Amino acid sequence: MSADLARLSDVTMRFEAAGPPALDGISAAIGGGAVTGLVGPDGAGKTTFLRLLTGLLLPASGTVEALGYSTVTEPERIRAEIGYMPQRFGLYEDLTVRENLNLYADLRGLPADERAATFERLLRFTDLARFERRLAGKLSGGMKQKLGLACALLRRPRLLLLDEPSVGVDPLSRRELWAMVQELTADGIGVLWSTAYLDEAERCGRVLLLNEGKLLFDGPPGELSDRVAERVVRVTDMTRPKRQALAEALDRSGVIDGVIQGRAIRLVMKGGEEPPDLGGKVETTTPRFEDGFVDILGGGPGGRSALAAAREPAPEREGAVIEAHGLTKRFGDFTAAENITFDIARGEIFGLLGPNGAGKSTTFKMLCGLLKPSAGEGRVAGFDLRRDSANARSRLGYMAQKFSLYGDLSVRQNLQFFAGVYGLDRARANAQIERMIEIFELGRLLGTSAGSLPLGFKQRLALAAAVMHEPDALFLDEPTSGVDPITRREFWTHINGLVEKGVTVLVTTHFMDEAEYCDRIALIYRGRAIASGAPDELKAGVASAEHPDPSLEDAFIAMIERAETREAA
Asked: What pTM value is reported for the model?
């Protein structure tokens, strides 16, 4: 890492005079020629940190310098020499890729005689040349992020600020984005990368970890992982259900964190504590950055779900709860999903994985009754979605990929609205609303408009609305996209608890550690299911002498590459 390109010295930032500080006495530096990771829970202050470096915000106290300039006295000089990609990058979806580049070139003052060469370089760099005439709104999530990165690089920056550029992006596209950014650092550019994916943080030269406005850690990621060395174990060969075993383990005082990994459970223990006896084989394993992250934050949530405890078991039934038989959806000449077939039993978690634009959400919407199939049949709780969609919808809960509640309504008004949509009578609606408020800790936010909630609370509200009527089946389309690992654990505690009550779950996700919670997975690529099985089965299918213990992300990428090779043959 070369000399510092930016520095914050004893910076405090407040948005309300009487409120808690968004940043509290922060001192940190960003170097050139490397990627510095910026991580922390939702509301930790990451976006505030980035906006201070651009001069878009000014500190209440302390100093911020970037590229040798003060953000207070010379913000325009800073903005001329940095690249900034905000969390919600403002692409114009009704403009083509090239038209978006032209627009941002105008905004950045790129001379006309430099544009052709600059556009060619960026389109080649991002592999978007073949899509330059496509509308931005028609791009996949990964391609949109690549276009956003290209717009941030129109004037070659000395410092590049990226606010969660890979949220909602599949593992293959994330790997491509990462490779592009590493190529930039090889030319001496300094990169500050805010991320919710802690496997990305492990690749950074340095990591800054924020929590409640405080800087808890500043150093190489390996130093944080080393904090929990010899305290991370895997429990395998259990005879009891893994979800029950995990819930029990997380309620033990000596267990700081725990997650499911295929057929195994991974636990982080307190110093000096022995792993609980879960009836399996216990072995120490290599710590990850995420283990150290959860440890320094004081541990994850417990293993018991108040949401699951409050509901009655889903009814017993013969046969599958969710059925897809030959589901196909065509939009004109384009086939978004073709001959998708699977059955999901009561109390099972089934995952749909695939690259952006593969057809996962299309399949989802057909099974929710939101899209009419071109061919094939979908059933939920025995009801045919074509002929009896009203009854089918009453048995399912749906949490959309993008926040789908009413942003102009308050938290309470949204809960009241969805109680009405799901046909709850007044007494039951009032009881369920109060229960959701308590379980998801929404009490202090009841009068807040849903659109202005922090992301973690938006997702809590969306889940509350989806489960208020106690559905037999729960459809979760990227339910934790962009939220921090602690909030994701909270969600999965609820999901695992509901599954133990017999609820059936269909989920899509780009977090491969989340996909490990699934009992079975189908991998969708270019509208077709190219592989299916338990997570460990998919990993075993790509294992080799050179790579005997692949991760689920390795398996995902290997199977996509195999499919591409078959199509090219």
From this structure: 0.87
